[in-house]
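Budget justification aside, the reviewers requested a transparent look at the raw inputs and outputs of the sequence design task funded under Objective 1. We therefore reproduce one unedited record. The lines immediately below are the structure tokens for a 72-residue chain.
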């Protein structure tokens, strides 16, 4: 994550989304869910909390999301 957005890397693809692409998020016990604000087409990005070696990583991620997005 940077000031311009979030980059998601998979085995066969890398996608970078600007913060404006998913301007709101919701937190669950297992995930951070980033939502688009489109009325006709809803898109989302799932950021799992599990698998992080550092327990404070979720706190740091939450702080970044709070800086750039609106929590719902």
């Amino acid at each position: 994550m940077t000031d311009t957005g979030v980059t998601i890397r998979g085995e066969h693809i890398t996608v970078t989304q600007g913060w404006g692409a998913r301007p709101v998020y919701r937190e669950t016990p297992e995930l951070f869910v980033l939502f688009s604000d489109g009325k006709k087409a809803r898109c989302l990005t799932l950021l799992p909390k599990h698998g992080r070696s550092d327990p404070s990583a979720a706190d740091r991620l939450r702080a970044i999301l709070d800086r750039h997005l609106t929590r719902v």
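The beta strands are 5-9, 14-18, 24-27, 31-35, 44-48, 70-71. The first helix runs from residue 57 to 68. Computational costs for records of this kind are itemized in the attached budget.
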